[in-house]
Amino acid sequence: MGSDEAAAAFDRLATVIARARLENRGWHYDNLERHKGRYLADLRALAAVAPSGSAVLELGAAPGHFTALMAQLGYAVTAVDLDPGRIADLSRHFSFDLLGCDIEREPLPFADEAFRHVVFTETFEHLRWDPFFALSEINRVMMPGGFLLVSTPNLYSAQNIARFLAGRSIAEPLAAFGRLREMGHMGHIREYSNSEMRRILRVHGFAAVRTNFDHYYYPPTLRGRFARLVFGLLPRRVRTFQSILARKEHAGPRLRPL
Fold first, then answer.
1. Residue 91 counted as domain residue
2. Which domain holds residue 221?
3. For the segment 43-53, what is each residue's pLDDT rounded down to a tens digit?
């Protein structure tokens, strides 16, 4: 994946967002800007194990930005989301398959060992019913030796540690429960440390082979410049995001939905 190719894919995505009939278009622009660095890092991690043209399953696809980028870069993407209608316009424009499924309550609609590559980014922290069932199903539909790319916020990020030391909650309850009425979900139900994620993956048949910690968005403000300075001085393990590339080592527990 060349930098020019990725830049062109981002430009096309921004143009489509401007023209598509998307709710909260301003939010889409903000999300794309804030997560651009993470998208690029995850695309590089995917390209290291999955050449262009590979079939990729993505779970928790909304807002559809990473899905659209993968499709533009030649991947045959099958996207699954709880509410597929919210990214249907992007699916039609970028020609990726889109299915609806509640991954915590419903089996994935695929045969055993159907995919070699699965993307599961910025979704695990939102699961509140049965995340282990979701991982059980991911393991089921993956080929032995296949790769799972997981990204999720780092519980032990510098800002979370600072909030804790200041006597503040990592997830402020008034804001979290308020989102149920405003957005239909609570945002981050739980954030995980890297050691927790590795143990959870191991129990479900995966071995982490590579982990990257990073912070990607620095706004052009005094606060952004200060954040860049702080994260540059601190160990990488306290950066905001963790991205884990894991290999399916063996079949995990076959769980049934609760």
1. yes
2. 3-248
3. 999 999 999 99
